[in-house]
Amino acid sequence: MSAFASRAALVLALLGASGSAWALDPDKVSNHVLLADDGARVGNDGPVIFAVLGNARRAIPAIERVSGGVYHGDAVLQDIVSNIASQVGQPGGPGFMVLTGDMVRASSAKEWSWFDQRFAPVLLGGSPAPAGDPPRMRGVPVAGDREAAGDSRYEGMEGAWPGIGADIGHNRVATWYAFDFNANGTRWRIMVLDSAKATLGSRWTEQLAWIQRSVGGDFDGVLVFMHDPVFDLAGATSDMNRGGGPAELIETLEDAVGLQKLRGVFSAGHHSNQVMLPDGPFGAIHVGAGGAGAPAELLRRWGGADAAERAIDVQLDPMFDLALIDGLDRWVADHEVPDTVIDQAKARGSYEGFTGGFDPKHYPIHGWWTVSLNGPTASLIFHQRRMDGVFADVYKASFDPGNGWRGAKLPGFKDK
Q: Which of 35, 42, 126, 309: CA 20 to 30 A from 1?
């Protein structure tokens, strides 16, 4: 049994997902409103702006002792609500939400009920919105390994998001789908994929065949959303490109559409946020949006990766890296933090010669993302949450066809 399979079995045992109290009854799962069906076209005369976040599930205290098992997703959701409220009646706020997997700890009626209650302020459907909250959004859900825990047929996903996925017949639920946006005259294709190769079994082959069919027609750029990353500098390196599925999906897609049309790959994977440009500014940007709920994990600044069966050295985008270092320096200036935390981040002192990394107990990389599509250009902003609960926009990446992707450090957190 693999390390991942062992952890999954432990989670199910701890949560009692197979017991009667945790049994899945799809009829008891509150449904929410999808943004678009597979194959749909969504028109828009102006920019398309949306929120991206992942691993919004609550902590599993028995096995997640990092950061004290603290669930911080409520703060992230409240910041999104505040962001929407500040933009009501004017352009600039997110119009829908992409959830990059692990919305629940395991697929059960109880867990989906928790998800519904937590996301009531921001997602259409399910429980009524609290009084005074701004307009709620439609969702673009991505299947993670927790959605499949105890529910490999994804009945919970179907219950929470009626109509999800491509039509594969025989009353089965597909967790992959695609739709198009007209963003100010440019057509963008959004592709939601399921990276859980082992879980899908024979459905994996169906998904690969669907990718070949789904890339027809005229479009200018592609954004991919899936749970497991191809490249990952957080958590355990052995889980990068988990099971080989993520790289196989991206390679299949690139073979079908060409390298120049794939603009970005968003995932959750480990509990942190990260940005990498492994193929340079004109390649796809790889964004890890997994720090929006569950306790944070160590984020390395650089490291080796065994992706797509080849050794690749990857690193955080330098401007993202600089933004995180700047935030750490501002934090330690006013708070007592062990010197080893700073040494580890900057690979100095007792950590000289080792890979630099951000200690999740003292400097977790929590937060969420805004993505904007405007004609052929794209941009994304990282909203980071500091240990004291304060949020700030610390990093922005922008894409245009002439220059590719360029990262920039934003003013971020202000000094006290």
A: 309
Give the separation between CA 378 and CA 198, rounded to whole angstroms: 33
Owner of token pair 């990282």: 382
On whether the CB atoms of residues 23 and 109 are closer than 8 A, the answer is: yes
From the number of C-beta atoms within 10 Å of its C-beta (0-12, 13-18, 19+), residue 90 rates as exposed
What is the average per-residue pLDDT within 29-46?
90
Question: Minimal CA–CA distance to 106: which of 70, 143, 148, 64?
Answer: 148
In this prediction, residue 2 carries a pLDDT of 44
- Answer for the pair 233, 193: CB distance below 8 angstroms, yes or no: no
Q: Once rounded to an integer, what is the mean pLDDT over residues 167-178?
A: 94
DSSP 4-66: HHHHHHHHHHHHTTTSGGG---GGGSPPB-BS--TTEEE--SS-EEEEEE---SPP-TTT--G
For 337-396, write each residue's pLDDT tens digit: 999 999 999 999 999 999 999 999 999 999 999 999 999 999 999 999 999 999 999 999
Length of the chain: 416
Q: How many helices (H) and strands (E) does the chain have?
A: 9, 18
What pLDDT sits at residue 9?
A: 54
Q: Which stretch of DSSP H or E encloses residue 331? A: helix 318-334
Hey, which CATH number is domain 3-409, 3.40.50.2300, 3.30.70.270, 3.60.21.10, 1.10.287.3510?
3.60.21.10
Burial class (CB in 10 A: 0-12, 13-18, 19+), 393: middle
CB 195 within 8 A of CB 226: yes
Tokens read off for 408: 């920039």
Rg for the chain (alpha carbons), in Å?
20
Quickly tell me which residue has 């990718």 as its tokens. Answer: 211
Give tens-digit pLDDT for 51-61. Answer: 999 999 988 87
Residues 6+ apart with CB under 8 A from 362: 337, 338, 341, 387
Q: How confident is the model at residue 88 (pLDDT cuts 50, 70, 90)?
A: low
pLDDT at 45 over 80: no
- For the chain, which residues make up each domain, given as ranges? 3-409
C-alpha neighbours within 13 Å on the C-beta side of residue 316: 27
3-state helix, strand, coil in the chain (%, to 5): 30, 25, 45
Q: Which residues pair with 187 in a beta bridge?
A: 182
